[in-house]
Amino acid sequence: MSSSRRDFFKVLSAGTVAAASAPTTALGFDLETFFQKHFRRLDEEELTAVLRRKEAAYEKQFGKKFTVKATSAFEDVVFGYGLDITRCIGCRECVHACVAENNQSQDPEIQWIRVLEFERESAIRGIDLEKGNPYYNPEQVPQKDKFYLPIACMQCEDSLCTSVCPTGATWRSDDGIVVIDYDWCIGCRYCMAACPYGARHFNWKEPSIPEDRLNTDVHLLGNAPRKKGVVEKCHWCLHRTREGRYPACLEACPVGARKFGNLLDPESEIRQIMATKRTFVLKSELGTNPKFFYFLGGAER
Amino acid sequence: MDAPDSSEPNGYQPPPHQPLIWGVLGTVALLVVAGVSVRLSENPDAARAANVLQALPADAEATLMDEPEMDDEYDPCSDCHEEEPTNYTVREMDDEHDEMEFAHGTTWCLDCHDDEDRDALHLAGGKKVDFDNTSELCGQCHGSKIPDWKAGIHGKRTGHWRGEKEYRPCISCHNPHLPAFEKRKPKPPPKPPARNGAEVAAHEPAPAEEGGSHE
Q1: Does B152 touch chain A (CB under 8 A)?
Q2: What's B47's DSSP letter?
Q3: Which of A89, A99, A133, A143 best tests the B interface by mutation, with the highest count of B CBs <10 A?
């Protein structure tokens, strides 16, 4: 009896040693990934190891070389976004530019930006998001009696999603961008229930990305390819914006309705808008303090 | 550089819609009075730098993109127009240029195109404007857009929010002859959520989902 028990422990410890020494084990998963620390607890060396390991894994999975970054926030920046709803024509160029930039799954389909179509007349009673139609598809836009309201993550200053996350897998960075550590997300979807804007999306199945659409320039907390069972959302293209570039949706907009910049810089485009235009945020009554400002730029159309 | 002047340019016979022109000239004259061009006569270079319409945005790193190239078929205008005497009658372009569409308020050719130097444009006051520097011309009527454009509120910018940003002259987005944006087919809509493998028909308006998407 006791000898068989001793044998059992011998086998077990031999197995553990083997498991620890090989990156992928007979257990069927990678122990280093399994024991990967939370992003904010990684020291520099560990972070580098994680990034290189991700690059290798993505190359194996997609057959392409990836650059996985963890660019940190600028110290003197809090980001803000502006969108001129008098100018948006509802063409969905931003939606599809975002899908391509951020490696969103085609099947099942995930789109971080949702453009809602509203009756112009209804605006007089305020914007009721439940009345918005995301499925509009006329021959031509803009339609005369409609207006369009693109919605994605508002990067709330008082974000509800981050406060309900049981694992701390999502948090607000110093530059205001709400990020997700996909390796710490357990897929409980509390954040989706908490978000008043429907900005978060769940990978019900293994995501599929067409090969010709893969973006290999990725940020670990942003557009790095996700896996089944995790939540994802807009992160204001932090792989671009933390290098000083504009987000992809902004550059895709054919009418220049999208504006982006540093809320701490009075000369920035977003601050100029706040100083000179009428702006509003969605569901301000909830006290989430979004940093996505809709504004009336005054286009005639 | 000539200060804008409210007298009529040489040989220019104003088209019948004078109120617009006089409105523009009035505005220009007011600007002059307001001191915009006070220093213009002293130093032409300083004057150019001080020109509110041509000035770069406050951000020194902004780069103004080139104006779009003219259609080869028409460039330069003088190829045809040098020989033809100028016809000052406001009319439909149903002979020459009949393939072009014109819908820009009540303006017509010679409001912007110079009647003597056919390879130039002019401001309402007669000052010549190059084809590759037209935003000043647009700003005569669309004055409220200019400060917005300079501040980056109006118009598309690309490149960097911090670092080099590219901004565009008016006519790189707006066709000067047909300035309203063309309507277009929108890109494909999202798929409605599937229930038990079958797509739920999209209602008009769509089924209200509490808090939006749950895909």
Answers
A1: yes
A2: H
A3: A133
3-state secondary structure of B170: helix
pLDDT on residue B20: 57
- Residue A53 CA to residue A66 CA, distance in Å, equals 11
Would you call B186 and A277 a contact, using CB atoms and an 8 Å cutoff? no
Indicate yes or no: CB of B215 within 8 angstroms of CB of A246: no
Name the nearest CA neighbour of B37 among B68, B6, B83. B6
Contacts of A48 (CB under 8 A, 6+ apart): none
Burial of A165 (0-12, 13-18, 19+ CB in 10 A): buried
**A143-193 confidence digits (pLDDT tens):** 999 999 999 999 999 999 999 999 999 999 999 999 999 999 999 999 999
CB A183 within 8 A of CB A202: no
In the Cβ-directed half-sphere of A31, how many Cα atoms lie within 13 Å?
A: 13
Domain spans of chain A, in order of start: 1-35, 37-301
A109–B190: do the CB atoms touch at under 8 Å? yes
Give B50→chain A minimum CA distance, Å. 20
User: What's the burial of B12, exposed, middle or buried (CB within 10 Å: 0-12/13-18/19+)?
Assistant: middle
Spatial distance between the Cα atoms of A240 and B158, rounded to a whole number of angstroms: 12
CA separation (Å) from A95 to A251, B120, B187?
12, 41, 8
Q: Reply yes or no: is the peptide bond before residue B68 cis, omega within 30 of 0.
A: no
Alpha helices in chain B (DSSP H): 18-33, 44-50, 78-81, 109-112, 135-139, 145-151
Q: Which long-range contacts (CB under 8 A, 24 or more apart) does B116-120 make?
A: B116/B10, B116/B11, B116/B86, B118/B76, B118/B77, B118/B78, B118/B81, B118/B82, B119/B76, B119/B77, B119/B78
Q: Is A74 helix (H, G, I), strand (E, B) or coil?
A: coil
What residues of chain B lie within 8 A of the CB of A298, using their CB? 144
d(CA A278, CA B93): 42
Terminal C-alpha separation, chain A: 87
Q: Which residue, among A203, A227, A233, A228, has the nearest Cα to A58 in the 3D structure?
A: A227
pLDDT tens digit sequence for B42-87: 454 444 444 444 445 555 567 888 888 777 777 788 888 888 888 8
Structurally, what CATH architecture does the domain formed by A37-301 represent? 2-Layer Sandwich (3.30)
Two structure tokens written together for B105: 């308020």
Q: How far apart are CA B103 and CA B87, in angstroms?
A: 20
